[in-house]
């Protein structure tokens, strides 16, 4: 559980569907953290706003902003484009974060991840889900088809459960697999370009496609308030077009939110290490045989594995060679 109002605010803005109002933030806190005083919360909202003046941000002016004001009382998650005002020590800390992705030992991190992958291990839930949706793109939402709606909901649901999306605090825990029907229908209607998108196409157009698809996925999960973690887990397991922005990835990669700015950084990291990442694309495992298929992990999946390990799971020391 987050310990400070700032950390709780970061948790909140990841869950709210964009754009959101200040009143929605206040309401979310009343439900989840009723001990937080509204006056303190509103001071944090102002301090977390990227396009607020440094003076109005007060003691938070040195922090990376969480939100951007897009209208009167209306916000979206900050995409990192607005340069925060930094003091000397904070500037040094953020510089270190920016440099961190370039320092990771890519091969060691991938090897550490694959060490725990096996046909019956939870990591393989990604393989089976990804294989299903990629192999049956045109049939995943068909009712009554052996590879259609029911199997799609079950594959996706078990994958999400394996990757922590059905824990006790998750709204999805209170739903059956059938709750995923609108999500699978939305997935089936996503433009073909998204299905084929990978980090080698992370130009302005490609990033916009990813971001639009994320909005559609988030909307399809309602009334569940889908976090960035849940949305990107779905997109990774189905399309393979974006890393999952979970706690470990964000810590390892040095970003705080899923945003177009963060996606640009992912694209830059890939371009700087394309040869190595391409060489590390692994074949998925087949559910029936447990053996490798001819379908390769996407580049986004490789980057996801790297920073999942680098961010501390199951131990950064292993990935760093320390």
Describe the protein in words:
- This protein is mainly α and 322 residues long.
- The chain has two domains: 5-85, no CATH class; 99-320, no CATH class.
- The protein is built from 17 helices and five strands.
- The protein starts with a helix and ends with a helix.
- The model is unreliable at 82-99 and 315-322 (pLDDT under 50).
Secondary structure topology:
Blueprint: H1 5-15, E1 20-21, H2 22-32, H3 38-47, H4 54-57, E2 67-71, E3 74-77, H5 88-103, H6 106-114, H7 124-135, H8 149-162, H9 181-189, H10 192-195, H11 204-220, H12 228-238, H13 247-253, H14 260-272, H15 274-279, E4 283-285, E5 292-296, H16 299-310, H17 316-320
Antiparallel strand pairs: 1-3, 2-3, 4-5
Major sheet: size, sense and barrel closure?
A: 3 strands, antiparallel
Number of helices: 17
The order of strands across the largest sheet is 1-3-2
Over the alpha carbons, how many angstroms does the gyration radius reach? 20 Å
Q: Strand content of the residues, in percent?
A: 5-15%
- How many distinct beta strands? 5
User: Helical amount among residues, as a percent range?
Assistant: 40-55%
| Envelope shape | globular
Structural class: mainly alpha
Low-confidence sequence ranges = 82-99, 315-322
Distance between the termini: 29 Å
Q: How would you state the average pLDDT, rounded?
A: 86
What does the oligomeric state look like here?
A: single chain
Helices and strands, in order, run as HEHHHEEHHHHHHHHHHHEEHH
Please tell me the total number of domains: 2
């Amino acid at each position: 559980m987050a310990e400070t109002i700032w950390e709780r605010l970061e948790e909140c803005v990841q869950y709210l569907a964009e754009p959101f109002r200040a009143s929605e933030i206040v309401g979310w806190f009343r439900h989840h953290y009723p001990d937080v005083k509204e006056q303190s919360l509103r001071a944090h909202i102002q301090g977390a706003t990227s396009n607020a003046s440094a003076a109005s941000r007060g003691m938070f002016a040195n922090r990376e902003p969480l939100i951007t004001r897009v209208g009167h009382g209306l916000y979206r998650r900050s995409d990192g484009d607005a340069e925060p005002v930094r003091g000397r020590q904070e500037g040094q800390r953020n510089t270190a974060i920016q440099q961190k992705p370039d320092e990771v030992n890519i091969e060691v991190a991938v090897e550490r991840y694959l060490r725990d992958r096996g046909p019956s291990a939870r990591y393989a839930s990604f393989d089976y889900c990804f294989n299903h949706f990629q192999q049956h793109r045109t049939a995943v939402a068909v009712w009554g088809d052996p590879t259609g709606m029911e199997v799609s909901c079950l594959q996706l649901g078990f994958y999400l459960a394996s990757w922590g999306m059905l824990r006790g605090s998750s709204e999805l825990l209170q739903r059956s697999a059938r709750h995923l029907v609108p999500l699978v229908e939305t997935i089936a209607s996503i433009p073909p370009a998204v299905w084929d998108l990978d980090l080698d196409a992370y130009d302005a157009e490609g990033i916009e496609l990813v971001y639009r698809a994320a909005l559609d996925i988030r909307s399809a999960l309602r009334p569940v308030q889908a976090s960035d973690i849940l949305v990107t887990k779905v997109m990774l397991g189905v399309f393979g077009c974006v890393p999952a922005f979970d706690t470990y990835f964000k810590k390892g990669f040095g970003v705080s939110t899923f945003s177009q700015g963060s996606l640009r950084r992912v694209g830059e990291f890939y371009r700087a290490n394309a040869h190595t990442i391409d060489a590390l694309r692994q074949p998925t495992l087949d559910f029936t045989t447990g053996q490798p298929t001819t379908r390769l992990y996407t580049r986004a999946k490789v980057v996801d594995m790297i920073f999942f390990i680098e961010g501390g799971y199951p131990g950064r020391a292993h990935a760093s060679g320390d």
